[in-house]
Amino acid sequence: MSVNLSITEICNLALDYLDEAPLASIDDNSAVARWFRRNFWPMAWSLMRRHPWNFAMARTLLPASAMAPAFGWAYAYDLPVDCLRVMPLTVNGTENAKTIPHKIEGSQVLADEPAPRPVRYVRRVENTGLFDQQFTDVLALALAQKAAHFITGKASYAESLGQKTQAALSEAQAIDALEGTPDDPEDDFWIEARS
What we know:
Layout: H1 7-17, H2 31-49, E1 57-62, E2 75-78, E3 83-86, E4 102-105, E5 108-111, E6 117-123, H3 133-152, H4 155-178, H5 189-194
Antiparallel strand pairs: 1-6, 2-5, 3-6, 4-5
C-alpha cells in the first residue's frame, strides 16, 4: 500500500539511517539537499526497473510502428515513453500465457506477431505518493547507502547499509510478489498428458 510521503520525507528517512539531521526541504541550497536532488529520481527509477513492483506495473496495446524492421522481424512496436522495463511478451499479454519470440532494441520491441500487441511493463512512476511502503523503505536505504560516504565520510556506513538494503529488497520483492491471486497456467503439460 502507498504511504504518501514526499521526496523530502523519503530523503529524511535516508538521513535517519545515517544519524544525520533532517532536511527542511529538498529545495534547500545545502550540499546534502543538492546531492539528493541529483540522485533521488535516478535511484528510484533504477530500483523500479529491478522488479515488477505492483504499484509500477502498466498494461497497454501497442500499435505497429509505421516502419517495419529492416530484417529479422515482421513488426516493430514503439515502447511507451514511461517504460522502464518490458515484461516478457506473451500471445495474449497475460503473465502465464505462452511467450512469443521478441527483442528489445532501443525504444522498440521487435516481434513477428501482428498488432495490436498487448504488453505489460514497469512504468516510470513520478509521484512519490504512489510508492509502495516496502519500496519506499528500500529506496531510503539505497539512498542512505549511496550517500553514506559523501555525507558522513565513513565508508563503513556504506558497507553496513548495503547489506541492509539487499535484505530489505529481498523481503520487499517477496511481499510484493504475494499480492493478488496467482495466475492459472495457460497450458499445463502434465494435465494434458494425463487426459
